[in-house]
Amino acid sequence: MELGMIGLGRMGSNMVQRLLRAGHQCVAYDVHPEAAQPLVKDGAVASTSIEEFAGKVIRSRVSMETSGRPVSSSPKTGIGQFDTLSKIPEAG
Questions:
Q1: CA distances (Å), 64 to each of 5, 42, 83, 92, in order?
Q2: Homologous superfamily of 2-61+70-86 in CATH?
Q3: With a threshold of 0.70, does the pTM exceed it?
């Protein structure tokens, strides 16, 4: 199964590592591109922008929160950072 992970902090990177060990393919994105490098060594595919991430993941759903706030309003990433994902047409 192909999965995408936005946010590669402690939780996100650990989730990607476990998914890779279980045989899944993972596309990874973080606002700090260097966060993806250890995961790339384990087999993940890194994205350097949210647009690139959206182009690499066949079907996407965002279901994460940061500090109790939706990711799209996180002060670390900037308001509207993930609006690109909502504009992707749903397959099939």
A1: 10, 23, 14, 24
A2: NAD(P)-binding Rossmann-like Domain (3.40.50.720)
A3: no
